[in-house]
Amino acid sequence: MFDQLREDIACIHERDPAARSRIEILTCYPGLHAILVHRLAHGLWRRGWYWAGRFVSHLGRLLTGIEIHPGARIGRRVFIDHGFGVVIGETAEIGDDCTIYQGVTLGGTRLYKGEKRHPTLEEGVVVGAGAQILGGFTVGAHARIGSNAVVIKPVPAGATAVGNPARVILPEDHAAPTAAGEAAASSAASVSSPASGPASGSASGPAAPAAAGSQAGTGAAGSAPASAAGRAAGSPCQEETPPSQAEWAARPLQELLQRGRADSAPADGAVPQEDFAPYGVGRTDDDPLVKVLHELINHTAQQDARIQRLCSALEDLGQRIENGQHPLDAERLNRMVE
């Protein structure tokens, strides 16, 4: 018993930077008090003394503001930080080394007795403040539940769940936007590069008949500029774009996302440390819906730049294009999404 108490105090001292001493933890942490009372109530419950277990649990609720049903199973080194408003149901199971913050509910969505109604948290799960985990499913080991998330389906091991209803971010999803941004940058660089070959060759190529036809139609030599002939020689999508459009194409929105995180990067020679993510999500975790919006804005900006280049090529060939739309301001939309 005392070994387990020492484990509980040590884990709180490790995870809470506000903890200054073991005496402070033993006397002033309601989460620890709630765990100790629950062990007594759970022991009574397992021996069939149901009323006594419920009464001890009720006393613990009055003292700590944390309601844990005596039938719930709680592992070792579980840390309930702050704890006020935490509710843990009868069939809930909490694995070792879990961290739970204030206002969390491990509840059920069914009213049938004798079945698994409440969730199971495997080892190392972090549940952010105000999160609601509802149902008899499993949250995988070392998963993170964001603050105020409403989780109603299983969460795989190592994943992050955020939002209402919760959307699951798998570990491999964190690297996907970066790879997509690099691919977009390389594609944009190839699109924005000017057409190869000397200008004289392009002027004597397929654009020469067009220039001759223009001279025959107007009776004046040199009415078609050499630049127009050079642009007509290649594909309009391979022209050199104006600075603003090239900026859209060459700077994917993923780079704009990383701009705000550059200040938090470790200095040269410093050892990077992983954030504890006390409320389930860290600074580098974006909502999946936000990621989708960034990719849509990025794709739309690139398509808009291509359409603008096509319109410019058609106007150089003498076709008037009515286009009253302003160019898409991708950077402004990105800031609005953030």
Strand order of the largest sheet: 3-6-9-12-14-15
Any low-confidence stretches, pLDDT <50, length ≥5?
188-243, 270-275
Structural class by sheet pairing and helices: alpha/beta
User: Given the structure, what is the number of helices?
Assistant: 12
Mean pLDDT: 74
The CATH architecture name of the largest domain reads 3 Solenoid
What does the oligomeric state look like here? single chain
How many beta-strand segments?
A: 15
Computed Rg: 31 Å
CATH class of the largest domain: Mainly Beta
CATH superfamily of the largest domain: Hexapeptide repeat proteins
Helix content: 40-55%
Query: What are the secondary-structure elements, in order, as H or E?
Result: HHHHEEEEEEEEEEEEEEEHHHHHHHH
Query: How much strand content do the residues show?
Result: 5-15%
Features:
12 helices, UDP N-Acetylglucosamine Acyltransferase, domain 1, five-stranded parallel beta sheet, single chain, 43% helix, 2 domains
Description:
By secondary structure, the chain is of the alpha/beta class. The chain has two domains: 170 residues, Hexapeptide repeat proteins (UDP N-Acetylglucosamine Acyltransferase, domain 1, 3 Solenoid); 114 residues, no CATH class. The protein has twelve helices and 15 strands. It has a six-stranded mixed sheet with strand order 3-6-9-12-14-15. The chain has a five-stranded parallel sheet with strand order 1-4-7-10-13. It has a four-stranded parallel sheet with strand order 2-5-8-11, with no helix packed on it. The protein is elongated. The two termini are 49 Å apart. About 18% of the residues have low confidence. One of its GO terms (biological process) is cysteine biosynthetic process from serine. Its EC number is 2.3.1.30. It catalyses: L-serine + acetyl-CoA = O-acetyl-L-serine + CoA. Pathway: Amino-acid biosynthesis; L-cysteine biosynthesis; L-cysteine from L-serine: step 1/2.
